[in-house]
Amino acid sequence: MKSNWIVTFILLSTLLLFTACSEGNGESSAAESNTSNKDSNDNSVSEDNANDSPLELEFWYGNGGDVGELIVAQVEKFNESQDNIYVNAIFQDNYNTIAEKLQATVVGGNLPDIVQLNSRNWHTFGESDVLLDLTTVIENDNDFQIDDFDNGLIKDTLLNGGQYGLPFNRSTPILYYNKDLLDQLGYDSENPLENWVDVEEISKAIVDSSDEERFGFTALLDAWYFYSLAWSNGGELVNEGGEIVFDSPESAAGLQFWADMAEAGLMLPPTASGSNSGQLLAEHFYDEKVGILMTTTGALTFIEMNTDFELGTAILPKFDKHAAPTGGGNLSIVSRIDEERQDAAWEFLKFMTDTEQVIEFSTATGYIPYRESAFQSEEMQKFYGETPNALTGYKQMAYVHSSPSGYANIEVEIANAMERTFVDDITALEALQEAANTMRSRIQ
């Protein structure tokens, strides 16, 4: 039986914090944890500023807080850079809301022109021709240098050979840890977390060193993180034949490792992915009630601002090998708009992903600089010199895997299985087998 305190903590947290067990929240909530709640109008470009003459486009974006404010600032910069196009940026709460509303407008009309879609669930819209294939557009634009973009992230926006978007705010999960605490415990704080056994060992030392309640490690129960656990241990999510295989013993072992750590009091029992759950875990880290936090690179700047101790970062630990997913958002153009609007939307995409904007976005947030020209720039190199923790996510790009595409609800089912592993009297393997069977029944 699971310890009662674990079940109570998760159930209470779920009741208070759970708003949507959905993909994407784990990678954005911590990054937005240090800003006040904002009405959607606060992060929208006012239509009152638009002139009558420019062609007006509608852009849906899903990042709130400081990240949302930066997106709006860059949209305003685009509007001020020329007189022919005016982009109205409309905040849509999160990636899932964008996907839901986009699906509704496909049926009912009033489509946006440009959308920021989660990098792992845009494929359905590409397959149904809702998004514009940019292949020909790119080939005909001699000024656009797609070779300057990170090759792995460009491949991540391909579908059946077509280019259905461009990377925008791209991230990967990493470890954040309290270097001062590890120094006090006698560990090498420069490179302490190579594998998951290291995380377990150091977590035990953290717990044993305090008379007050303190945990070694915490992370959200997000499918994004499960991917790394499975891949690192030799598991897969979907095999080459397209079959669901995330319920293999290899895939389940990492999740069970987490559950065993929580049972032993080493891991702070995580909540399901909700709009505030990442903020809650980040605050425990800031308050030194947790020594190691797993979350997105997109949270780096905000975590740096809120920690009073020396902060360390590390690429994700391994079981057999290092393996990591990528996340964040891409920018895509809706195909069901006229050619004039498509051309204008392309000019906006080029601006938002040019070297100058990538440098500004990456240095302000910690998101990955996905253009080589941005990474090599004097500004980025200065930023890395002053903020060496920012290099961790970039280094981890050598170990990223592509997430499965075309499988609706796979991340929701995996997240549900993760939660059941912690709450119910069930093993990780059993929970994942039930989730996989649910997915298989939908595919048949």
From TrEMBL:
Entry annotated with the keyword Signal: yes
CDD domains: PBP2_UgpB
Record key words, sorted: Signal
Signal peptide (UniProt feature, chain positions): 1-22
InterPro entries named among the record's database cross-references: Bact_solute-bd_prot1 (IPR050490), SBP (IPR006059)
Protein name: ABC transporter substrate-binding protein
Organism: Evansella tamaricis
Region (Disordered): 27-50
Any single Pfam family the record assigns to this protein: SBP_bac_8
